[in-house]
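User: Please fill in residues for this 405-position structure.
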């Protein structure tokens, strides 16, 4: 039995997976998991998809309460960590409890950004990060009506698709000229613009929001081009900011996220970090990167937990994430610095194909539309550093599995 203490701040996906991995690695000391939300750890992808369309099994947490009791994990929910004292090795909570740690994991994730607009605090204006947000939006969608989504990124578009599937009248306002433009090339933005329009979304590119009007509740949205749209609900989906406040106050290195090395260690060797909040050094990419993805939250947390238990594991993965909108499954592998001059396999415009990005012979990125089985092979090709020719990548009659050999 170890008499060491680990404290994990943030009981989201990364925090939940981390405490699981600590016990799995044989750590027998004290573990405290502190979470600001009232809920046990849960995964967020269904919040914008099945939980809004209403066609899934009900909301599920990752582990139930008995799981934590059996593993002797001290859960502090509805509690926010307010201060880290690195000198004393202590964390203070918002009820003034002080927890001592030998090792600390920061898994604080991110908070949704909102906009400074007239009418932003009217009832009926939402953002989406938590199950409570998702339930509130689901309530609006159930009532049908007119929904304006601000932001044509992954989350905004998933909400728009779910709302259409619920029979709502949906408008999407996107300031840029193409969808998902922060992460993906114009070819993909165009394919998704067509998808949304074909499914009845009123998509307005190059258009922002100027204000929201109504008495107590939203009634209208004024766009940056001066149009006035009747609306029963507005969802702002303009991204997140990593929750780095505690780390900054504690003097840890922070640069678009808590900076960690390939072992998930911060600039203080007793403090680790994992998930959306980190900017981690990825040896495959030879640079720091901050990812907002299910895979990263899970696997980086596991790596961090094992390293806190004394292992020396390098976390080095091909980044991967997915999005589901209407009947299209989008998957992205890798993180090229820029997309351009890509190799097409299948037909992206028909939403059945893959775009490959290469640097020299190396595949640095791939985007698949409705190619989930193929994308598993792509991930393996990239992980194994295979260098198929451009002609083979483009040739849909050659199986990608064959290129693994
Ligand atoms: C609606 C939605 C849909 C998504 N869909 C996909 C998808 O399809 N594919 C994909 O790859 N990824 C998806 N993601 C991204 C994925 O869910 C995130 O990358 C993942 O949840 C990150 O996990 P995390 O534990 O790092 O952070 P979070 O899940 O944000 O958890 C952090 C937790 O820390 C808590 N916290 C913060 N500060 C403190 C503090 N000081 N004290 C105590 N607790 C604190 C927060 O309340 C929160 O509960 C989606 C995300 C959302 C929101």
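Assistant: Residues filled in for all 405 positions:
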């Amino acid at each position: 039995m170890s008499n060491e203490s680990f404290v994990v701040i943030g009981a989201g996906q990364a925090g939940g997976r981390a405490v699981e991995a600590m016990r799995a690695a044989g750590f027998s000391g004290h573990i405290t998991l502190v979470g600001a939300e009232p809920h046990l750890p849960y995964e967020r992808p269904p919040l914008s998809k099945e939980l809004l369309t209403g066609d899934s099994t009900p909301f599920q947490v990752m582990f139930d309460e008995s799981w934590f009791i059996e593993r002797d994990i001290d859960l502090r929910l509805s509690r926010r960590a307010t201060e880290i004292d690195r000198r004393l090795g202590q964390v203070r909570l918002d009820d003034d409890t002080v927890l001592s740690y030998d090792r600390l994991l920061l898994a604080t994730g991110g908070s949704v950004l909102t906009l400074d607009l007239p009418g932003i605090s009217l009832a009926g204006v939402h953002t989406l990060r938590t199950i409570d947000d998702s339930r509130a939006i689901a309530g609006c969608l159930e009532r049908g009506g007119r929904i304006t989504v601000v932001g044509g990124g992954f989350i905004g578009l998933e909400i728009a698709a779910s709302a259409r599937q619920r029979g709502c009248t949906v408008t999407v306002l996107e300031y840029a000229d193409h969808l998902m433009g922060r992460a993906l090339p114009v070819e993909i933005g165009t394919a998704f613009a067509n998808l949304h329009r074909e499914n009845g979304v009123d998509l307005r590119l190059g258009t922002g929001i100027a204000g929201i009007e109504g008495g107590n509740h939203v009634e209208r949205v004024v766009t940056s081009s001066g149009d006035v749209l009747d609306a029963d609900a507005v969802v702002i989906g303009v991204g997140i900011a990593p929750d780095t406040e505690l780390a900054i106050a504690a003097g840890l290195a922070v640069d678009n996220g808590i900076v960690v090395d390939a072992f998930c260690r911060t600039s203080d060797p007793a403090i680790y970090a994992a998930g959306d909040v980190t900017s981690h050094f990825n040896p495959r990419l030879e640079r720091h990167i901050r990812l907002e993805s299910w895979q990263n939250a899970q696997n980086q947390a596991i790596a961090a937990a094992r390293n806190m238990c004394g292992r020396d594991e390098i976390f080095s993965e091909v980044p991967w994430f997915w999005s589901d909108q209407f009947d299209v499954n989008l998957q992205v592998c890798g993180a090229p610095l820029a997309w351009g001059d890509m190799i097409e396999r299948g037909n992206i415009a028909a939403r059945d194909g893959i775009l490959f990005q290469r640097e020299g012979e190396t595949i640095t990125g791939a985007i698949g539309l409705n190619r989930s089985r193929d994308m598993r092979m792509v991930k393996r090709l990239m992980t194994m550093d295979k260098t198929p020719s451009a002609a083979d990548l483009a040739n849909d009659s050659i199986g990608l599995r064959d290129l693994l050999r």
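For context: The chain has ten helices and 26 strands.
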